[in-house]
Amino acid sequence: MSDSIGPSPFVVSDRNLALELVRVTEAAALASARWTGRGRKNDADGAAVEAMRIAFDTVAIDGTVVIGEGEMDEAPMLYIGEKVGSGGPAMDIAVDPLEGTNLCAKDMPNAITVVALAERGNFLHAPDVYMDKIVVGPNLPAGVVDLENTIETNLKNLAKARGKSVQDLLLCTLDRERHEEMIARARAAGARVRLLSDGDVAGGIAACLDSSQVDIYVGSGGAPEGVLTAAAVRCVEGQMQGRLLFEDDAQRARAQKMNPGKNPDRKLDLHDMAAGSVLFSATGVTTGALLRGVRQYPHQAVTHSLVMRSKSGTSRFIEGHHNFKTKTWTPQ
Questions:
Q1: 107 assigned binding-site residue
Q2: The pairing of beta strand 300-309 with beta strand 295-296
Q3: d(CA 326, CA 249)
Q4: In angstroms, how far is CA 3 from the centroid of its own chain?
Q5: How far is Cα 39 from Cα 238, in angstroms, rounded to an integer?
Q6: What is the pLDDT of residues 143-175, one digit of tens each?
Q7: Is 200 annotated among the ligand-binding residues?
Q8: What CATH number is associated with residue 313?
Q9: 176 is in an annotated binding site
Q10: Residues 6+ apart with CB under 8 A from 13
Q11: Record-annotated residues binding Mn(2+) 2 (predicted)?
Q12: CA-to-CA distance for 120 and 134, rounded, in angstroms?
């Protein structure tokens, strides 16, 4: 009989790739954790990039970095357009080898290593500009919040959808001067506000996880980080909108070139930023609301990771115990 029972090879491959991505973010976290609290953010970032690049060499994909450390002449590794993987299905890669370099350097919460993967052509090619973002979690009415609304309207609509009062809501945003008016208005409306010094990928994901207590993430941050956040939000069926913010015509032209035929000023929905089947992995470097940081011992370390698949909607928290006496790769 030609019919077969059981998962298709694509599904099996998809699942295997999800676990392979965890190894990539673990490697970057283990390498950068050695620089935690040393005040040398560039060394921490460089260690994460190098470790992630080496780990990608073992992943069975034909990968192209579309969100990376910059252009080829700006970044020696994991630059936009770089090919990674040992061969396999054509995939686009979005990476932030160390999200929160300052957090790692100062041993502050929420430094993480991040990778997202999608079938070729399904990630927004985002230039290194700011993006206005708004994120809420799953199981809410479509369009419950919108970038076009005032913060007061968004909080009121979200509170009603959650069966809460605005006073029960927790808003998360980056602690930046550009957000001061929005923060003041949110507090005046009654909401509590959690301020992050850095790390808006972790903040955006937190809005989708009940364990974080965050109800909504709002504010502007890096566009590449916005694509990574969108990948994670897709996996848990949350809601997100974004809009690229340009300082000049040159930045707008760059965005137009990267996404031909698209209006660079348009409001982006979740599928504009991350479409198709998406995989996401993050590993904690320093302990935060999302993940525990790397715990280091003389000959071993313990990592805490989150891996998600949009196809199944499954999220897994994985604790890895790494024995450096037997591990084939160890941080230098």
A1: no
A2: antiparallel
A3: 53
A4: 39
A5: 35
A6: 999 999 999 999 999 999 999 999 999 999 999
A7: yes
A8: 3.30.540.10
A9: yes
A10: 60, 88, 89
A11: 96, 99, 225
A12: 26
**pLDDT class for 16, splitting at 50, 70, 90?**
confident
Whether 51 maps to a domain, the answer reads: yes
Helix or strand holding residue 304 (H, E): strand 300-309
Is residue 237 a known part of a binding site?
no
| 274 token code pair | 């991350």
Contact predicate 117/91, CB 8 Å: yes
Residue 153 sits in the same domain as residue 203: yes
CA separation for the pair 194, 214 (Å, rounded): 8
Residue 177 assigned as binding residue: yes
pLDDT digits (tens, 9 = 90+) for 133-142: 999 999 999 9
pTM given for the model: 0.90
Give the span between the Cα atoms of 227 and 125, in whole angstroms. Answer: 9
C-alpha closest to that of 166 among 134, 146, 192: 192
Q: Is 100 annotated as belonging to a binding site? A: yes
Q: At what angle do helices 180-189 and 151-162 cross, to 10 degrees?
A: 40
Is 210 annotated for ligand binding? no
Q: Which domain holds residue 94?
A: 9-121+278-323
Among 166, 217, 225, CA closest to 196: 217
User: Are both 198 and 216 inside the same structural domain?
Assistant: yes
User: Is 130 annotated among the ligand-binding residues?
Assistant: yes
Task: Tell whether 92 is in a known binding site.
Answer: no
User: 74: pLDDT confidence band, cut at 50, 70 and 90?
Assistant: low
297 labelled as ligand-binding?
A: no
Structure token pair of residue 6:
């059981």
Q: Are 100 and 285 in contact (CB under 8 A)?
A: yes
Q: Specify if 2 maps to a domain.
A: no
Query: Which residue, among 209, 243, 203, has the nearest Cα to 223 in the 3D structure?
Result: 243
Strand order in the sheet with 239-245: 192-196, 170-174, 216-222, 130-136, 239-245, 268-269
330 labelled binding-site residue: no
Structural domain count, the chain:
2
Tokens coding 177: 């001067």
Do 233 and 219 belong together in one domain? yes
Do 80 and 137 belong to one domain?
A: no
